[in-house]
Specification:
One of its GO terms (cellular component) is P-body. The chain is of the alpha+beta class. The chain has 20 helices and 18 strands. The strands form 7 sheets. The chain has a 5-stranded mixed sheet. Strands 3-5-4 form a 3-stranded antiparallel sheet. α17 packs across α19. The protein is globular, with a radius of gyration of 30 Å.
């Protein structure tokens, strides 16, 4: 509807409401027949008698379901079971979690697995937002709720009482906050063009009550779903409004963040996303981080335990034991001296993939392309503490100001990054995804195998673009004069290397062109923007509560760039992107051929087009490279 995916729901009052899919917390399938739902129509009011009768029938089902849910909810209320003390974490500052089925067994004795009981339990949990928060990612899928830490609940209740009673402690905090905010605004204005810095105000300290209020304001910034009741919104609004320096603003997350910045509790350049609980990022500078020191010590202990004799004894591996030898050494294919090109940004911190090509003899125009992925399983077993942590994290976290690696940097840079073994004259263990492209641009064969590569050559995107004569990526700079790209040092490559890179570029372009002709894909892409930081990492406010006030001066040097998919998908970046996408397709085919179940990422059909004939119109106006619009404006 109007280019957006909306859901329509008929509620027990007879109204039809429009909402997005994420507004749904829990659902029971087949409560009404599908044909009956289709006959009910999608308009706000029924258009004819058929729709009216269908809605009446559905409402009968809904009201019967509502009666069953209310009965179960009354039983839960009569039992008066307290769920929070049983579900909260043992440590008063740690979050807990509870599934809906676990909660139902604690609050309801009879048939806790029935859907009316589960619905009633969900209603019970959602009615206690000061104690429970629906999980951001897996609430609807796994029916899981986060349980607030005990100290968070105690602090929030204390601040609620403080605001309600208009206590002298609150008045003292408000007066102190006014002075700090005015000072912070003055200093920020004076130092805008200075480097970022934090200044501690030694003669202004926070009392325990002050610290509690500030802690609650921090907690209020945590991401929640918009359809949830926010137990802290009332007190946050009351406190900020009573200070009187934000009277013209609506007190939302933006206003709350600005308030904390002016109180010295957050740095103006701090990315609030990094504070999300589910990411569990260590915001302490690496040189001060206990987690970083512990990870490094763990890697060193695991490396020190490597003893060839243990492999012969076949002793079970402990949680800190690396493999003594490569478990698939006998299966690895040795690619010998075949050149492997690691193409990435000059500033790339993790080098984990490389490309190579082998022309097929006696088949002009055909070649095998290989995507080599660094293989950490050569030393890292699934039982290792590092492996378990990586499963929880899922991927590295890349932000403008810093990168948090999924694996410890001391292990990645010295043992797992492509090139780390080559520098020592050792082969690099990889997992290789291979595909054969013929002269017509079709994929005619594929393979997946563990491998060894010995001839790794690193080259950056811009250098490859200059070798290919593509001109590189053109960014837009709406707030400043266009910048002259820095001329990076072109690595010394032999003529054969240039031929190989040109061959890979031609093959991937031919394969992409063939896919457009046969698959007819459509992707709706809007222009994007990014910020580039001159110096990384950039750190924010202290991660532990401070008792002295502070303010921030200056700001980091940032460059604002705009780009589109068309400007990015060209040259060396297009070459690498096409190879990675094709490697994923190879993996999918290989798993299917072997009968191995595997998750696959998919996308829904585009909803941006109201008329099916629009696709034909777009195809007719498509440029040779597959794009229709140039999304980068000229400044």
């Amino acid at each position: 509807m109007n280019g957006r995916m909306w859901h329509l729901s008929l509620i027990s009052t007879g109204e039809v409401i429009q909402h997005v899919e994420s507004d749904v917390y829990i659902e029971v399938p087949h409560i009404a027949d599908r044909d009956l739902a289709l006959r009910a129509g999608t308009s706000a009011t029924p258009m004819d008698r058929v729709e009216t009768n269908a809605r009446v029938e559905i409402l009968k089902y809904l009201r019967e379901a509502e009666k069953e849910i209310n009965k179960a909810f009354m039983v839960i209320g009569q039992k008066n079971a307290s769920l929070y003390p049983h579900m909260r974490a043992k440590h008063p500052d740690e979050w807990g979690s509870v599934s809906l089925s676990e909660a139902a067994k604690l609050v309801y004795d009879y048939r806790p697995e029935s859907w009316p009981t589960l619905f009633a339990t969900h209603k019970y949990i959602m009615g206690r937002p000061i104690e429970f928060v629906p999980h951001m990612q897996s609430q609807r899928l796994a029916l899981t709720y986060d349980v607030r830490p005990e100290n968070h609940v105690v602090k929030l209740q204390k601040v609620v009482d403080t605001v309600r009673q208009r206590s002298p402690e609150l008045e003292a905090f408000i007066e102190k906050a006014r002075g700090l905010i005015l000072t912070a605004r003055e200093k920020a204005s004076e130092s805008w063009d200075e480097p970022p810095s934090r200044v501690v105000v030694n003669d202004v300290t926070f009392s325990t009550d002050n610290r509690t209020i500030l802690d609650v304001l921090h907690l209020a910034l945590r991401r929640t779903r918009n359809t949830c009741i926010d137990p802290s919104s009332g007190v946050v609004t009351s406190i900020i409004k009573r200070i009187g320096l934000h009277a013209h603003k609506m007190v939302d997350d933006v206003c709350s963040r600005q308030f904390l910045i002016e109180m010295g509790e957050m740095a103006p350049w701090e990315d609030i996303v990094t504070q999300r609980k589910e990411l569990n990022l260590d915001l302490t500078p690496d040189e001060e981080s206990q987690r970083t020191r512990d990870e490094h010590a763990l890697v060193q202990r695991s490396l020190s335990l490597l003893r060839p004799s243990r492999a012969k004894g076949k002793q079970p591996l402990g949680p800190e034991d690396f493999y003594d030898r490569d478990p698939v050494e006998h299966l690895r294919h040795d690619f010998g001296s075949l050149p492997v090109y690691v193409i990435d940004d000059v500033s790339a911190e993790e080098l984990d993939d490389g490309l190579s090509v082998e022309p097929v003899l006696n088949e002009p125009g055909s070649a095998w392309m290989h995507v080599h992925i660094a293989d950490p399983t050569v030393i890292l077993p699934p039982t290792h503490i590092i492996s378990e942590a990586a499963r929880r994290i899922g991927s590295s976290a890349h932000f403008i100001h810093k990168t948090w690696s999924m694996l410890p940097p001391s292990l990645t840079h010295d043992q797992l990054s492509l090139g780390s073994h080559s520098r020592k004259g050792e082969p690099e263990p990889v997992l290789t995804f291979s595909f054969k492209i013929n002269a017509e641009g079709n994929m005619v064969d594929y393979d997946v195998k563990a491998g060894l590569i010995r001839n790794v050559k690193r080259v950056d995107y811009d250098s490859v673009d200059r070798l290919l004569g593509n001109g590189g990526v053109q960014f837009g700079y709406p707030f400043e004069a266009p910048q002259t790209p820095e001329i990076s040092h072109v690595p010394v490559l032999e003529s054969k290397d240039v031929e190989n890179i040109r061959l890979m570029d031609n093959l991937t372009r031919k394969f992409r062109q063939r896919n457009r002709q046969t698959l007819n894909p459509f992707i709706f892409s809007a222009p994007s923007s990014t910020l580039v930081v001159t110096a990384k990492p950039i750190h924010g406010a202290p991660t532990t509560p401070t008792w002295n006030a502070s303010y921030y001066c200056g700001f980091p040097n940032l460059t604002y760039q705009v780009y589109s998919q068309k400007t990015m998908e060209r040259g060396s970046r297009l070459l690498v992107a096409n190879c990675m996408k094709t490697a994923s397709r190879v993996a999918s085919r290989w798993f299917a051929a072997k009968g191995v179940p595997m998750l696959r990422r998919s996308a829904r059909p585009p909803i941006a087009l109201e008329d099916n004939r629009d696709i034909e119109r777009l195809i007719a106006r498509m440029y040779e490279d597959g794009f229709r619009w140039s999304a980068i404006p000229t400044y």
